[in-house]
Amino acid sequence: MPTLIKLAGGTAAWADDDFVMVGLEDSVPLSGKVILPLSRYAAEAPAILAQGRKVGVRLEGADEVEALAPFLADLSVIALEFSKFRDGRSFSSARLLRERFGYRGEIRAVGEVLRELAAFMMRCGFDAFEPTDGSTPEEWAATVHRYRHVYQRAADSRAPAFVEREA
Amino acid sequence: MYLYDEIDRDMLADRASEFRGQVARRLSGEITEDQFKPLRLMNGLYLQLHAYMLRVSVPYGSLSPVQLRALAAVSRKYDKGYGHFTTRTNIQFHWIKLKDTPDILDELATVGLHAIQTSGNCIRNITADPYAGATADEVDDPRVWSEVLRQWSTFHPEFSFLPRKFKFAVTASPKDRTAAKAHDIGLVLRRNRDGVLGFEVMVGGGMGRTPHIASTIREHLPADHLLSYVEAVLRVYNRHGRRDNMYKARIKILVASLGIDEFRRQVDAVWALIEQGEIDLPPSELARIRAAFAPLNFESLPAISPTFEAERANNPALARFARNNLRPHKQPGYAIVEVSLKAPGATPGDATAEQMELIADLGERYSLGDVRVTHAQNLVLPHVKLDDLPAVHAALAAAKLATPNIDLVTDIIACPGLDYCALANARAISVAQDIGEKFTSPDKAELIGELKIKISGCINACGHHHVGHIGILGVDKKGEEFYQLTLGGSGAEDASLGEMLGPALAYDRVAGAVETLVDTYLSVRVGDERFLDTFRRVGVAPFKEAVYADAH
Description:
The complex is a heterodimer. By secondary structure, chain A is of the alpha/beta class.
């Protein structure tokens, strides 16, 4: 049963998640794609990448995305955690990855990921989601598209109201 | 006034329909109260002691008569026939049924009103000078920038889950009527020596259990860079503000712990890396918003109105009202009229549906369709012709809205307190009423002069007690209501935090203590010193002596 929703070209769909999330204390599987915690990435990723395997990284809200700058070209997935839905730090992390560092790979929302946050996440640059509220891709997409306009620029391509008004 | 265009109206309609869906999920039991709570709190819907409370936003305190009538209609149809104007210049309805809230939001949306970002850890309603566009001493219209900030902050994707709530104030006048230095960000518009319009940006002010006066982070930010700069401030705060303790989560704590210089360095570093041209508004949009606040079509009138002067000479009530509730208007022949919501025995900030409708009518007929809400919980008719003052005064007086007490001892700010609020330790409204009873003589009130009393029913300080000339804080002592008095606070351009008077007083001693403080002031004041000036000159000692000597 898939638990990952991916957003591409405005449509949301279930996606197979072939990455294994490696916890702080877990041993790294011998094959396949993995997502490592930030604290283990620098030491362990090079060997896994050298095997031709794909590697991602997981950041908690307090982790600073600036630490990823040297690794961005190697990263397949960056998972940003919402330890609680109220913890909005990962919104800033995602925007920085997209806007300042130009990262174009997958940014995945993990942790307490609720439908009500979908539009904010999408606007900040998230394109993959592990919802914890049982949302379906249809429900997810409906929330993302609920608002017909936005007022400000962010990491997505939506034209803000001040651009729409000029048209 | 800024009129919502199709985009602005779509935003409100989309929000109202989203909330209708969320309420339906709650009423059907699909989601629990625990799951619903964060959703309703994004819509200004609180569960209080007796009922749901809905807080409706009045963006930068500016209302059209049509909007004010809609608020009156909501209070009559869905509440008990009144509403409560707050120190955030919003209006609260305290007796709301959950099932009615989607209909209320729909009705409000038809007149451009909403409850967006009136609660939650997001950017809240912007406070602006209530005399904007009317006062002679402003260098620009602060509503222009307030509207710029309103749009930018509405559903901001990065800043909707900040460590804690976030409040802006904007003023363009040297006389601060917004309590700018008590806000998370206070913006004061000025022109520099070259005539360039810019903001003094102040950051880290706030009330609550650790009050702070804001520090200046930038002396002169070119006005057209406002959005990119505040985006940098908010990003530093969102990433580094404390999230482990809600009482230490406001930006004031971050600024205090880093120091203003280090905080400034971090903001500047972020700002330098932001694509400022993407975030700052293009000149065309700024011009569009500015046009909405273009100077009104005032009539050319003499500075003195013989009609008004003659009436005032014959009508002592009008004369007293004119002395206390009028403020100079930039246009000769006009006045700014303050409408007091502090009648004797009234709940500070409450207005009945009939009163709201009357003020709406007066605003339409006599004030160019403009009504304002002040952070002192009064209303303002900003553009009244002197010739019309006798008629306006008579109409207000007939509706108990002509209390001549603006900035005087009975113009008290009070939060709803234990009468409504689930957080409160003590009553605030009845303390205000008791104090009012001690000062029923309007002659004495005028003799006392400017005196700002502010009452909060708990340490969250919604009544701004820290910046009251006399501040009163309700505390709970073993189940009994006690009150901590502070003196010498100010939320204006001369901002300061009040100093503790002494041990907390029991409920029934508070009004008497205020009377003693006032008598002490009158006995030691020099010339036309205000209470605040006298306190700053003589210190707390004579006041303390008088109040606590009285106790023995």
